[in-house]
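Appendix B, record 7
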Amino acid sequence: MAMNKSHLTKVQKGVIGMLIDDHRKVQKIFKDFESVEDPIRKQEMVMEACMELTAHAEIEEQHFYPFLRDADPEKFGDLLDEAEVEHTSAKDLVQQLMAMSPEDPLYDARFTVLGEYTEHHIEEEEDELFPEVAKQGYDLTELEAPMQETKEAVLGRLEKV
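Structure tokens (predicted):
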């Protein structure tokens, strides 16, 4: 059950809302990819998803996860450990996809598996992690600007590649 942003306090909506918006964006790319035949369009979609996932992982790893570990290591430790392992697997697939072309035999399969990993990760965050953060009532205001800056920097760096 996907988390609804209406369950968040005003100070939580900025950060968690940003993460949920990222989730919806890549979910749409993965869904739309299924019906695309054109190899050039496929490659554009894969590159966009890979860039978005890279930036998303970066803001979670640099800002969101450390904040939660500091706030309550007991409550969030296992979930965050799992999330970081999931990020590592996703990053490996992203690297492989960035080095491939749509003509490579396993291109579609790798992107599909990346989508499955991503969907699992989204479900865990939205069903377990985000509701717990909302329930605890953490003030996430201090994370919003640094997360946005990091995301823009990562996307800017990747667009130049």
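Remarks on this record: Residues 39-71 form the longest helix (33 residues). The CA atoms of residues 59 and 73 lie 19 Å apart.
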